[in-house]
Amino acid sequence: MRILNLFAAIAVSIGMLAAPAANAETRSICAFDPAGKSGDYYALLNEFAIEAAGWGAEVEIKVYTDEETAAKDYEAGHCDGVVATGVRLQRFNRFPTTIEAIGALPNYDVLKSMMNILATSAGAATALKSGDNETVGFIPVGAAYLFVRDRNHDTVKELAGKRIATMDYDQPSKTMVDRVGAIMVPADLGSIGPKFNNGDVDACYVSAPAYRPFELWRGLGESGGILKVPLAQATLQVLVRPSKFPADFGTKSRTWFFGKFNHSLGLVQKAEADIPSKYWISQDDEALAAFDELFLSTRLKLRDEVKAYDSSMLTVMAKERCKADSSRAECAEQKE
Fold it and tell me: With 60 as the cut, is the pLDDT of residue 7 above it?
């Protein structure tokens, strides 16, 4: 969903840092950057560009304020790589983008375990390639939570019939809204805040970094709240054409980004901590079980009918969930 966050890419020139070569090839990466060059990830991506030069890849970052345009330009061959959320990149390879599956990663510890696997596993390295596309980096950008204007709408049953702002390109979220029995109201990053704040919808889903820029406290008011149930883990993913990069670029890049996991997650957790505690709505065991059941049924539908999720990725994530908590009901069923 994905969805959901304000992140910045950067434009840097690193020719002076690369080994001298008059005809050195420059690779271009189309990077989605809704906040221009002023976002929290400017320093992170600057470090990445410097590291890439050391790996023999001079990279030019082309900044886009529209994510879909960046993805389309990559698809059309105008760029050698693209930085965008997983849900936007699903059409290139379902394996890496399935890490954003509905309810598949219930906390940041399990997310970190999965990202470690993606950074170090030889089997994952193979699956991260599809044709001349390779996912070479993951940046955690926060769990997506449901923001509701009425904090009494805090269970699966209570959400039936409610209007939920849903990214019109996010098929998994559209499927979940339908399974809840809620009403989907099409939205995008530019309209989701106003729709929620003006009362055009009863709920919307975003990650914590969007709270302040979207001024979501206006929609929450005195009666609203945020369901403390991660709907999905949003990621910023780096996808490149491996034929344009050195042979070991993907491995080095994924290792480097995983090494920055704690830094990236720290930005997210700071944004979560900045939200007033009065808004967070905790769930009891019964409510959590209902959400888990909803998430599982939605993932199975998206795997088997919609074909939006990769089955092998779902299986690995299920194993990681059960490794972290073997008491989960799904651990005995093994449906994924």
Answer: no
